[in-house]
Amino acid sequence: MAIEKPKSTYQRGSAAAEIYAVLRDEILTLTLEPGSPLDETILSNRFSVSRSPVREALNRLLAERLVETLPNRSTIVAPVDIRGFGAFIAALDIQQRHATRLAAMHRTAADIIRLRALANAFNDAIDDEYSLQILQANYAFHVAIGEAGGNPYVLRQYRELLSEARRLLHIHVHYLDTENRKSVLRDQHHDFVDIIEARDVAAADAIAHAHTMQFHDRFLTALRYAPDDSFDIGTPPAGTKETVA
Question: Among 83, 84, 93, which Cα is nearest to 214's?
Fold first, then answer.
């Protein structure tokens, strides 16, 4: 799909941030497919800028593990490693449980106010037809849980996994959308906040684990092909020989 160049000019110093935001959104929603090349010259022409802000934008995407630099120094959209999904879920489960437990132990009143607002924003995003809003709202909420825990090392590891999960979550959300089931996501984050506010560490561990496993199950369901039983091509005309594919 051809993407038009932006019609407006960039404010001074804003080009890199705006290019980063456009490319990030296209990567997260799979408009830019995994493995797609990201040539600096082509991108500088597309955005009508020099290569410097393009390079800066790509470096930010590299830090979020959304792009990769190959040995020949070229840059591509980071592949989605379905074969490593099991290992990814195992790592996410550990970090999500640890981060949520820490939040339940160390949260402040200000943390609860912030988490409530982010949980409301996530609910609002569910009603939006553009799934990118759900991805970003989910990311912001769980990062805030990591921040409420107060351990910068846990936060750093958790944030990295959450960033990598966003494209997988897009597939998950798209599946729910096609099944008209996005509403099942509503208020899940408020359940997190209730438990964190109550400082219930055991319940925090349980809800974080259940959340990860729910994502795991729905993502695998989204990958399975479901045939359309309503489609009927009819029977071969009389006298037609059947062939074996």
Answer: 93
Provide the token pair at 224. Answer: 């399975």
Whose CA is closest to 161, among 97, 242, 91, 111?
A: 91
**Number of residues that make up the chain:** 245
Q: Which residues pair with 69 in a beta bridge?
A: 75
The predicted-structure confidence for 37-62, as pLDDT tens digits, reads as follows 999 999 999 999 999 999 999 999 99
Distance of CA 65 to the CA centre of its chain: 12
User: Which domains does the chain possess?
Assistant: 15-77 (1.10.10.10), 82-223 (1.20.120.530)
pLDDT in tens, 170-198: 887 877 777 777 677 777 899 999 999 99
Task: Return d(Cα 233, Cα 231) in angstroms, integer.
Answer: 7
Contacts 24+ apart (CB under 8 A), 64-69: 64/24, 64/163, 65/160, 65/163, 65/164, 66/24, 66/27, 66/28, 66/163, 67/27, 67/38
β-strand partners of 75: 69
Strand partners, 67: 77
| Phi, psi of 3, rounded to the nearest 5 degrees | -115, 125
Cβ count near 42 (within 10 Å): 11
- pTM for the whole thing? 0.77
